[in-house]
Amino acid sequence: MNNKRIHQQHRRRFLGITGVAAATVVLNGLPLAARAASRRMKIGIVGSGKVGTAIGSSWVRAGHTVMFSSRSIDHDEALAARLGDNALAGTPRQAAEFGEVVMISVPYHALPDVRKDLGDLIEGKVVIDTCNPFVWRDGELATWAREKGAGLASLELLPGARIVRAFNAIGYVNMGNAYQQPGRIGMPIASDDADAIAIALPLIRDVGYEPVMIGGMEMGKYLMPGTPLAGEHTPKEVREIAATLK
Ligand SMILES: NC(=O)c1ccc[n+]([C@@H]2O[C@H](COP(=O)([O-])OP(=O)(O)OC[C@H]3O[C@@H](n4cnc5c(N)ncnc54)[C@H](OP(=O)(O)O)[C@@H]3O)[C@@H](O)[C@H]2O)c1
Fold first, then answer.
1. DSSP 8-state assignment for residue 172
2. In angstroms, rounded to a whole number, what is the distance separating the alpha carbons of residues 138 and 147?
3. Are 133 and 150 in contact (CB under 8 A)?
4. Which pLDDT belongs to residue 241?
5. Where is 181: in which H helix or E strand?
6. What is the pLDDT of residue 40?
7. Residue nearest atom 25 in ligand 1 by C-alpha distance
8. Residue 110 in contact with ligand 1 by CB distance below 6 A
9. DSSP H helical ranges for the chain
10. Parallel/antiparallel/unpaired status of strands 162-165 and 186-191
């Protein structure tokens, strides 16, 4: 199936989220959303830096099996050893293959390389995109992405991936501790794909945040630092802020 058709299908599913039951992704005989809710998933993380480590550690704590990856296998092996049996280390290709869900958490300028390296593996997979474009760090790609909107830009850079933008608008410092006060902070998310959202929701709750759906990927441009949604807000505050953006 070509990428455009996959995207159109996912978009139709998202548009049906309020009424029509979404088509269901089945993996190993069990719907993927049910596996997410049952709290035992295989998650691949591409980019085991500040955000990848904080979120991945919380998922390990919640009982998921997480494979961490970057271009520094020594770092990932040390991280996995520190986190225990549910944590693994691998190359980005191994993590993308391993994960029923893949989280991509790299500097935005690395996304073209990620597509080149992993495009065949992430096509059709649920991908959580934490990545934000900054001109000071990511150069011209960030200028383009900010003009287009970060959500739509990510869709174009990772074609065929079933993207949920999440963990973008909050600094990493408290991410690894959010589980201590579950639901206190709202996590704005955006996606065009109802199935992917259903799979991401319990995973976001496992980190300690209450997910708040802001809208489709065109709203992904608001899930970044420097927007009204940025920073830590209660779920109610996130909903109130989001209402002013529409
Ligand atoms: N820091 C925050 O508070 C925060 C909050 C929300 C969202 N974000 C966004 O989330 C993303 C990650 O942020 P971060 O702060 O975690 O960055 P970071 O600490 O610099 O980590 C980036 C990770 O990506 C890896 N990486 C870079 N290029 C790669 C490639 N081509 N293939 C595979 N792995 C690659 C890096 O390891 P190697 O270089 O060894 O490969 C590193 O593990 C960024 O887009 C950022 O804007 C950050």
1. G
2. 14
3. yes
4. 97
5. none
6. 87
7. 47
8. yes
9. 3-15, 32-37, 50-61, 73-83, 92-98, 111-122, 135-138, 140-148, 150-157, 194-207, 235-245
10. antiparallel
Residue 90: helix, strand or coil by DSSP?
A: strand
* Cβ density class 23-53: b for 16+ within 10 Å, e for less: eebeeeeeebbebbeeeebbbbbbbbbebbb
Hey, what domains does the chain have and what are their CATH numbers?
3-10+26-245 (3.40.50.720)
Cβ neighbours around 91 below 10 Å, total: 17
Q: What are the 10-residue block averages of pLDDT along the chain, 246 residues in total? A: 41 35 47 65 98 98 97 98 97 98 98 98 98 98 98 98 97 96 97 97 97 96 95 97 91
Mutate which of 45, 50, 69, 170 for ligand 1? The one with the most ligand atoms within 8 Å of its CB, which is 50
What is the 8-class DSSP label of residue 177? G
Residue 88, token pair as written in the block: 């693994």
Tell me the pLDDT tens digit for each residue of 49-64: 999 999 999 999 999 9
pTM of the predicted model, to two decimals? 0.89
Tell me the two tokens of residue 50: 């500040």
Tokens matching residue 52: 């990848």
Nearest CA to ligand 1 atom 33: 70
The DSSP output letter for 88 is E
The residue written with tokens 């408290």 in the block is: 174
